[in-house]
TrEMBL record:
Protein name: Helix-turn-helix domain-containing protein
Protein's UniProt keywords contain Transferase: no
Keywords: DNA-binding, Transcription, Transcription regulation
Span of domain HTH arsR-type: 15-109
Domain of life: Bacteria
InterPro entries on file: ArsR-like_HTH, HTH_ArsR_DNA-bd_dom, HTH_MetalResp_TranReg, WH-like_DNA-bd_sf, WH_DNA-bd_sf
A Pfam family reported for this protein in Swiss-Prot or TrEMBL: HTH_20
Amino acid sequence: MTTATPAAGSRDLPHPVREDIRLEAVLHALSDPMRLQIVRELAAERTELTCSQFVLPVTKSTSTHHFRVLREAGVIRQCYRGTAKMNGLRRDDLDDLFPGLLDALLAAAARQAARLGG
């Protein structure tokens, strides 16, 4: 898999290029309830959010792991702005590669949350 490689010593994080985003990696990343919650919040906000803006019932190291899985799958893009790590949904890339997938998954997740009272 080709990734955009950050410059030596930079705080940029590696991301897969659009052409290397794989459906199975995206589906795996979204199969976890915490990661799906992150994506739902990013989709609802339609803007970048810092990691600290997410209230997840997990430890900081587990939260970091979830963000890394999403980034490495090509679902989110992370970048540093000052000391804040910003997270943005790669909606354009996902919609281009897998038309309708993200909207269908988000709609299904919303229906499930309503059904389960969450």
